[in-house]
Amino acid sequence: MADQDETVFGNYPVARWQVGTSAPVTFPVQQVTESGGNRLVMHERPYRDGAKLDDTGSKPRTFALTAIFNNSINEPGIDPNGPPLYSMLLRQLIRSFDLHETGTLTLPTVGNVRCRAQDYSRKEAPELSDTALLDLTFVQDNEDSLERTVLNPPGVVATIVRLAEQTQFSAQKEGIWSEDLGTLRERASEIGSLMKAPGRAVADVATVVRAHRRSLESLLNTAREESGVDGIFGEPRASRTERQLQEMLDREAQAEAERTASRPRTKAFVVDVEVTSIYEIAARLGQDATELMDLNAARIDDPFTLTRGEVLRVFETAA
């Protein structure tokens, strides 16, 4: 950021925006405001206080920036011999709004985010000679993840709930119903939701899948042992249910790999300062802090206090 003292913020990378094939525009910012949240649908009922809430997913992350353009600004990352901030880079940044494409926004406190440029407001005044203030709004675009979903349909999400429903139907039809089989669909839905949910840790998927697979294995073993050598699964009437349960085990084993398949490859990063945070590391490497939190959720206790020698996973695309 412009004119910062020698603090943590002074060591953050400078803001940058690149869209299409145009050259990136590097510019100093005075303020970054990030907003987000959940899309909640409220169902109000007569004669009942409050409302029933349905969470339909996350809102897109929105970034509001205030940038300053003045040729006297000297900030690391901005080439003093390059085009002047005022008014060549200012005009270049404003013209980028006409490209109507998703670009890469590098934020000092966040890292790289895939965004669309939404709004800008340019302010100039006679008393501010050769200076312009520019208010900018960018909205995160998930087009990259959507393209991966189209090209590589996730097998676990596409089949796990359907398999659970088929298994329950087969068990009821074959007369081998149990309370454990009655929870199959709920557990499959939980796994499917975690697989698709943005910003959820890979560790969450792994934990839920391990618990569900242990339950399935216990159910299979109990059913095989409770009567005779092979139990009820030794009977022809139960063969379909057994096959479907075994297929569920196989599908769930793929869940953690599929949850990480759309991510870049990772590598180890050893903290090399006395005390830092995952946000400072994200800014230093030019990566998204939320993605790094997601990647390391099961590895770190306090993301705001990382000490020298701790090992994290970061993406290989780091600068």
Structure write-up:
The chain has 319 residues and is of the alpha+beta class. It folds into three domains: 9-35 and 61-147, no CATH class; 153-260; 264-315, Roll (Membrane-bound Lytic Murein Transglycosylase D, Chain A). Helices cover 37% and strands 25% of the residues. The chain has helices at 85-95, 143-151, 155-174, 179-182, 184-196, 202-225, 239-253, 255-261, 278-285, 289-295, and strands at 15-19, 25-27, 29-35, 38-43, 52-58, 62-70, 103-107, 111-123, 131-140, 266-270, 275-276, 306-307, 311-315. The chain has a seven-stranded antiparallel beta sheet. The chain has a two-stranded antiparallel ribbon with strand order 4-5. The protein has a two-stranded antiparallel ribbon with strand order 10-13. Helix 6 (202-225) packs antiparallel against helix 7. The model is unreliable at 145-154 (pLDDT under 50).
Topology at a glance:
Layout: E1 15-19, E2 25-27, E3 29-35, E4 38-43, E5 52-58, E6 62-70, H1 85-95, E7 103-107, E8 111-123, E9 131-140, H2 143-151, H3 155-174, H4 179-182, H5 184-196, H6 202-225, H7 239-253, H8 255-261, E10 266-270, E11 275-276, H9 278-285, H10 289-295, E12 306-307, E13 311-315
Antiparallel strand pairs: 1-2, 1-7, 3-6, 4-5, 6-9, 7-8, 8-9, 10-13, 11-12
